[in-house]
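User: Can you predict the 3D structure for this chain?
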Amino acid sequence: MKYEDITHKIIGCAMKVHSTLGNGFQEVIYQRALSIEFKWQGLTFQREMEMDIRYEGQLIGSRRVDFFVEEQIMVELKALIQLEDVHLAQAMNYCQAYNLPIGLLINFGSKSLQFKRVYNVTHPENKDHKDKS
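Assistant: Here is the predicted structure, written as structure tokens:
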């Protein structure tokens, strides 16, 4: 997989943060800690990056993505007891809206770190991927 090395590194950073802090904090605390870990691991990123959302070529709004890593991967963070299908759908929608091939949904709120790779199945790079998550 083209993005496997980067997603593996991001997930490793998230695991380090979760093992150090545990669960129970607000999302912003994990976001700040993950920023530090990304820097230490040599990952380039933008935090709270505002991205345009378009419909049929028309700008209809914008959304801040928690992280945009290596100018390729959207990372959406949660601090919930349990991820729900709606959170996965939201992350997949962001990949489509931003026209990115892949993103990560990471949840720090459960006892064990939860993460999902999400794919934009309409992206040309993912023509062989159908509903992978």
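Residues 77 and 106 are 5 Å apart (CA to CA). The domain at 4-126 is CATH 3.90.320.10 (Lambda Exonuclease; Chain A).
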